[in-house]
Amino acid sequence: MEGLSKTFPGQRALDRVNLAVRRKEVHGLVGANGSGKSTLVKILSGYHGPDADAAPTCVFAGAKVALPLTPGESHRLGMRFVHQDLGLVPSLSISENIGLAAGFPTGVARRIRWRAQLALAREGVRRVGLERSPQTIVERLSPVERVLVAISRVLLDQEGTQLLIMDEPTANLPHSEVERVHAAVREIVGGTGAGVLYVTHRIEELFALCSQITVLRDGKVAALLAAAETDTDTVVAEIVGQRVDQKGAEPGAREGRAGGAVLVTKAISARVCNDVSVELRRGEIAGAAGESASGKSEFGRVLFGLTQPTSGTLLLEGKPVKLAGPAEAMAAGIALIPPDRLRQGSIGELSVRENVTLASLDRSVGGALAWLSIRQEKRDVAAIVRDFDVRPSGTEHRLEMLSGGNRQKVLLGKWWQRKPKVFVLDEPTSGMDVGAKAAVHSALRRAAADGAAVLVLSSDEVELSELCDRVLVFRAGAVIDELAGSRLSRQDILTAYYGNGDTGGKSFQASEDLGTRKEQLS
Ligand SMILES: Nc1ncnc2c1ncn2[C@@H]1O[C@H](COP(=O)(O)OP(=O)(O)OP(=O)(O)O)[C@@H](O)[C@H]1O
Ligand SMILES: [Mg+2]
Question: Which of 38, 411, 440 to mutate for ligand 1's pocket (most ligand atoms within 8 Å of CB)?
């Protein structure tokens, strides 16, 4: 592509971008939130048309292609997509979602052969290592599993694949699953000779998977780098450019600040939680590490009343509580930021301001003089936009016009405003660029310093090791280890959850303890 520009009302998202992806090449596309990555992807998919006056040119597989593309043309040319929002239909099954993308096998009179379709879906699910029946409704899947379904659709639709385009497929995946995605990408490249355009915020992925790297900054190509000839610092410098004001990048260690326990769980068990006893303390940032089915997200849902424990007790400030649902949890001062908040917690057609105040209507409307409350509301929302560095920085933009990462910031801010006593965040910075992550981390440190008990559930070991005072390691529903002090590096966390015992065997000891405890119980 040459000379690609895209202007939205009042906003130039792409500015004379050149991009070349070769056969069998994995080409990394990086850049800060809002730098234009998804816009570029959407032009390739035929969702957006580029600015016509810039006269962009596009050559695909040796032939000149007229722009704008339509979605049909894009597919016919051999482009396959895993979009940032995955594009799955939540109310349909895995198998039906695969059929929608890859085409259903048909028999006599073009009847869909459901059995063949199921077999096909089973194959797709197997190839991405997803342990689910293909008849599972997508709504029931975790974010990670949804990504794998989206990838399996492409795997099954391999025929004619010339260019695979993936927009942040690994934003929510822990270390081991990132490897799985890479394996799937390599399989597609090996099997088809296709090129890949791979969007990510994880710099380490560029070096693990990509040979070329294009960095976008404010809609322009800031750099084109060969992975073998560059390094992390160079890439980060190109991404942030002028934005070296990485707010709150102060180092993590804040030892000795933890106060008394706010929320205590005693032997909590639920569907995928097993005998979890944890203390969350005032002024402390605790972390939870673990793979996607390790039970850490389920534990978060228990704390927010979304899942009812089957046994065990929850103590809030020393008193036993039963949380019948999120409303009670919120009233008690507990907040949960869910992992797929873009889907669950927002309304795209409403403005940033309206989305923020949806969660806190009780606060804004409380004033005796309505107009005062509205002024307060505007001030609160403006503060969030400033604190989290939401770009563009207005409060009246429709939420759906913000880039993925900036939407995440708004939704984080929405809960933020409630100033919870216990703040549980599931993958708080997924899809955020380096600067945005730092802003969120410093906001969380501020919340802890103000006395909140913070629990960060994350599949990003680097984030946990930098941010947390203490990290609980989940595996198979149980807390198998607790890391603190000098045992809190990324390597310590990985070693603990893969449990190969290299850290002096403590993780094994912990799981053995648990085993004997369970034996005693039964
Ligand atoms: N439909 C739209 N209408 C108006 N502006 C838009 C629209 N879609 C995107 N934008 C703007 O275009 C710019 C680029 O957004 P884009 O989604 O391409 O960013 P991105 O690089 O994918 O960011 P992220 O890493 O957060 O996903 C942003 O400033 C965004 O607000
Ligand atoms: Mg994007």
Answer: 38
